Amino acid sequence: MKSYFKVHPWKVIEEGFDPQYNEVAESVFAIGNGMMGQRANLEESYSGHTLQGTYVGGVYYPDKTRVGWWKNGYPEYFAKVINSTYWSGIVLKINHELVDLNNATIHQFYRELDMFNGVLNRRSTITLNNGIEVTIESTRFYSLINKEYSALRYRVKTNQNCEVSLTNYLDGDISNKDSNYDEQFWLEESQESTSNELHLLVRTKKLDWLLATSCVAQFFLDGEAFSPEPQHSVKSKYAESTYSFSLSGGHEFVFVKHVISASNFNHPNDAVLIHAKNAVKKMASSTFESHLEMSSKAWNEKWNNHDVVVEGDDAAQQAVRFNIYHLNQTYCGDDPRLNIGPKGFTGEKYGGSTYWDTEAYCLPFYLVSSHSSISKQLLVYRYKQLDKAIENAAKLGFNKGAALYPMVTMNGEECHNEWEITFEEIHRNGAIAYAIYNYIEHTGDRTYLAEGGLEVLLGISRFWAQRVHWNNRKQRYEMHGVTGPNEYENNVNNNWYTSYIAMWCLKYTKEATEFLQSKFPQIFAEIGRKTSFDAASELQKWEHIMQYMYLPFDEQEQVYVQHDGFLDKELIPVNDLPAVDRPLNQKWSWDRILRSVYIKQADVLQGLYFFEDDFDIEAHKRNFLFYEPFTVHESSLSPCVHSILAAKIGEFDKAYEMYLRTARLDLDNYNNDTEDGLHITSMAGSYLSIVQGFGGLRIKNQHLQLSPNLPKEWKKYAFKILYHNQPVNIEVSEKQICISNLGESPIEFSLYDQPHHLGAAQTHVFTR
Amino acid sequence: MKSYFKVHPWKVIEEGFDPQYNEVAESVFAIGNGMMGQRANLEESYSGHTLQGTYVGGVYYPDKTRVGWWKNGYPEYFAKVINSTYWSGIVLKINHELVDLNNATIHQFYRELDMFNGVLNRRSTITLNNGIEVTIESTRFYSLINKEYSALRYRVKTNQNCEVSLTNYLDGDISNKDSNYDEQFWLEESQESTSNELHLLVRTKKLDWLLATSCVAQFFLDGEAFSPEPQHSVKSKYAESTYSFSLSGGHEFVFVKHVISASNFNHPNDAVLIHAKNAVKKMASSTFESHLEMSSKAWNEKWNNHDVVVEGDDAAQQAVRFNIYHLNQTYCGDDPRLNIGPKGFTGEKYGGSTYWDTEAYCLPFYLVSSHSSISKQLLVYRYKQLDKAIENAAKLGFNKGAALYPMVTMNGEECHNEWEITFEEIHRNGAIAYAIYNYIEHTGDRTYLAEGGLEVLLGISRFWAQRVHWNNRKQRYEMHGVTGPNEYENNVNNNWYTSYIAMWCLKYTKEATEFLQSKFPQIFAEIGRKTSFDAASELQKWEHIMQYMYLPFDEQEQVYVQHDGFLDKELIPVNDLPAVDRPLNQKWSWDRILRSVYIKQADVLQGLYFFEDDFDIEAHKRNFLFYEPFTVHESSLSPCVHSILAAKIGEFDKAYEMYLRTARLDLDNYNNDTEDGLHITSMAGSYLSIVQGFGGLRIKNQHLQLSPNLPKEWKKYAFKILYHNQPVNIEVSEKQICISNLGESPIEFSLYDQPHHLGAAQTHVFTR
């Protein structure tokens, strides 16, 4: 698989068509605008392997849970990403022969994802079985301006005179490959095919999501508009118009499809279809090209705020932009009800859309790369789901407003049912509190505590205060039955990371209450009433826990102990394992993995990453050098944290090695699963490896700190960030570091712990 | 539900028909002969709730596994108990009205399970909607003589002249309620309806099990044979004959159905149907009554060997006989390929048929109650599956002939897929070794070691030797990632019971090798070659493990510790829990159960029960008094072990309390799940509570030890056992103990540790 796609600084390129990579390419070339998106399915019919996927943010389906053995506390339904109306398809026949790349001779195939402009282009030349040579050029995009608009331009040229039949259709009769009971999720509402328009309204079987898709078709012949007469046809959940006309050899016709996808996520039920109909007509009154230009401009501006440049390593350059591109096409902070799904709009695998990845990996990306309002939406998302988190905790026996956020969710309800994860991988709750802290560190926006932050923190801290128990024999608090970030161990006692973040939550919540109490006493009183917060007794209890919480530490190794019993294992480093045993998750039975010392992703080290200022550099080194050799990095989220920490402790080779393991994960299909969709959230980790790792960037107490180093494989790298919402460019080369304040206000920052000042529009060059 | 069935020393009686108990009654009244069996479905049509179930031993289906989240090592298919051709149904119409108890006025309904004779009787009088009063008397049994034969006698009387239509049918178009993908398991082969015979041959979709069912119908009118002319009809997997005739009011007709069910479990493929046809004709040449009489006699003889008499407590009397009856109808040791399913022939729930229950609870029942050849079959069953157990272990990464017997199985392959059970509840392996030891203790048949016993022991010990690991920091062997018998804790380290039984296996296997080496050197050499057993190095390794194995013990409480971390829990006794929290498995989320101290069934105490001679009575007391208060007994297998141990340490009230919790589990439908089938294996536990608990019976080194006590609620109890394959009766009353040697050879035994001798046919009375 390696190097199937061509390297280019701004593009991902496929030259030549290999059907066995078609589904991988469909994932890699996916496009979207943060509100909706689509896999790169070929427009015309394709009889080879393909995974059709078109997704509209916020529209989901509560699929009935399928489990082997039921456990009390499991949810009955899971919100599932729902594959929806397929708008970009056409049926093309030339002299009655179906155009199908799987049944033709392909002379040329070129596909590119133009990341700078956010557009998907394809050019293919084929000879049909009837001998006619056909050249197709298609261009498709989702508008970054009108978030309900997407469009296709499809150019066709033949080498001889022929009869063309082109069927334009909207297909709402869509199945989810990933449905638990082969159930179809969509019901018919209405379908219409009239003049050059198609309109489809479908409804989900449950929850009554309505999705209207309206399209206007346009034809051009040799650059001139022309109007072949369509034949209309509809059936349940499907509408089409078929256009038949003659095409002279060497001439080109262009088919343009303007599409609006609108749902009752954003419109009243009875307005959804009408809105779509009106909006598409309005959009069709401007050209495809003008819409594309506006959208491209918006993409260009995004890049202007957070591009990363790598010189001397084209593959790395392409990779980091690929990751930034997909993070942006997945989430733009448009709506606090949306979040960052593990596959974004590139696949339907996994129920739910929100993991702790959002807070631990994605939020830091948006915090340094985007306007603070975008990050805030991610916080508000959790605030809006606080009631559900409280319900979720109540279901597990917690009370008094304790909140447990789900492991995986769409609408706040749990979408996962492995007991060792669902009920035990509770450190996620800590990450959600940490995100509030992190946001305030970057933005200084402590008023968010009054707007919802404190309520979330209270729910989370109340959960921790109930989740620990008093070990009377040892006179200390312990936390049993947890699964740390290392999912290769389950149901352990006193996982250091979980206990540490729990303690930290209590401490931070206490500080937050004190802040609100002093700065916003009235709001604090309101929140107290709303949440029945008994400050005196609850804070006293938390103090007691903080004082007596057990955090395992090993005197011999001078390291924090991952959990009770970890050091009782067979302590053989990963490098001493036979190569045939790797990856463990494919080669070993589950019990063997669990019993082993091998770590899937940062666990103790995740704690050091989050709370680095609590530990000195020697503690960082000891723990890193102890744990990393046992770490197999079989989670796509593992290498980035290790890369950042390795850079911090000066292990630059290790930092680069770790960086390489995520950067091209999907581009090179390392895990052989890119066909299911992309690993969106781990893309943020790969970005952070550069910016926080090599760049040594931190923003603490709204102050920018930098301590860059340059991987010896690179000549130079540069990254733009938004600091106090204004752009700053940091360029690191062998001899110098060049920092440019691109904004209109002066900035303060530290470089290698030395404070500096930089005026508006100023650049300063530091010699390394 | 309590007391729905009437108390009677030898019968279970239902008086009056309550449709909501119909499925419970179908389970309770089930009949079988150890080779096949059936739920007590009503013969005529019934439109109310019913769970039809007819099962043929050995015939199973590999149902595709359904899991939520796949783990490496899970099996793809599970053997499932298969519901098969329904032979006992008829369709009865009186003046064209269907007889259906759900659509008639019931005047009288009486159903009894006659346990002494192994027969199911029913009498009902109803008035149809057309005003005709109908009295039905049915009698059904599975022959204990011809294990392929079952029969029905169905008497009908009406209060006025009427037209009768009776359809006799065989229905092979049967679904499993419990199939994972609603798949039908049976395919058509052939069906035939001719003269008074019906013949059906069906085949399973997978594995090609063939089941032939042949029946001969007979009619009698007022005691005389008569021959109404049948109308024949067949369709796929179904054959019927309909008989129409006039019946005068006050007269009685009798319909008799002789049935042979034969499968390729016992016959060559091409002989199955022919055999069934011939056999049924032969059986039909004798009367229903004569077959019933012979079968009853065989049942009477069984009772003669292992009846338990309780005086002064009719409910207890009925209960213990109910349990003995069902154990006998489930398993008679006919075939080493059969075993004791958790629901026997009374339901289809749960895949597979064999749990460690067989070795831990059922085998001890058969060892004291039945000829030693029956117990031996249970050992041979596991020997025959040794190859599969070795494959199973290999799948999990073990090698060199290590064997892990499955948690649940039919044919030796694993039928369970919860990782914490399938991969971790490995103490089951120990129970299988213990069964060999236990069998030899009872029978003295050490030659079984040469016949297969040693090979099984070797496989099991090799597994343990690989499953432990060396804790280098603590210089000891540990066993991580196990689930003990207490399934309310999963994935723990150093479960005392598991580690103890593992050690014991190594020790016993070592002894067994030494025995064979000295007594059967040639066989030992052969086994060594066959298993590549390297005695010197393997035994040395085992010695090292035995020397350095970690077995957690708490100095403060002076008890064995259930596992690392158990004493770090919140140690609140069950009695201090609010009543609303019980049973925990319904009221608490799974994680809360796991984190709690509460024990589902004997864990450390299971070890004390198995290896009682390794521990003094004070250790028994300390451990019992420490662990029992944390035990919720939410497994039907829990109370019996506690009852036996409580009796041993003189806690007689506790012993009786525990006895009561299992004795009438199904008769009184305590767990509200009797409709799914009976809890067959726990029935053995209830028997052992009396014989080993109150009776204090042990057979060690082929020597009978007794130390009876009498529950104060009882006047007297007695139990017959087979000791050295001859019957002995032990009768315990307030003042005396009466022991009768009913056999033809003298016996030696101990009573309260005093040795005694009893000649053939002698009785000795001891004053208490």
Structural descriptors:
32% helix, 2 domains, Beta-galactosidase, Chain A, domain 5, homodimer, 10-stranded antiparallel sheet, 768 residues, Glycosyltransferase, 20 helices, alpha+beta
What count of helical segments of chain A does DSSP give?
Answer: 20
Q: What does the largest sheet of chain A look like? A: 10 strands, antiparallel
| Radius of gyration of chain A, whole Å | 27 Å
| Fold-level CATH name of the largest domain in chain A | Glycosyltransferase
CATH class descriptor of the largest domain in chain A: Mainly Alpha
Instruction: Tell me the count of domains of chain A.
Output: 2
What does this structure look like?
2 copies of one chain form a homodimer. With 768 residues, chain A is α+β, with helices and mostly antiparallel strands. Chain A has 2 domains: 11-63 and 75-303, Beta-galactosidase, Chain A, domain 5 (Distorted Sandwich); 304-728, Glycosyltransferase (Alpha/alpha barrel), CATH 1.50.10.10. Chain A has 20 helices and 32 strands. In chain A, the strands form 7 sheets. In chain A, strands 1, 8, 9, 10, 11, 13, 14, 15, 16 and 19 form a 10-stranded antiparallel sheet that branches. A 5-stranded antiparallel sheet of chain A has the order 7-6-12-18-17, with no helix packed on it. In chain A, α4 (314-330) crosses α20. At the A-B interface, β21 and α15 of A face β22 and α15 of B.
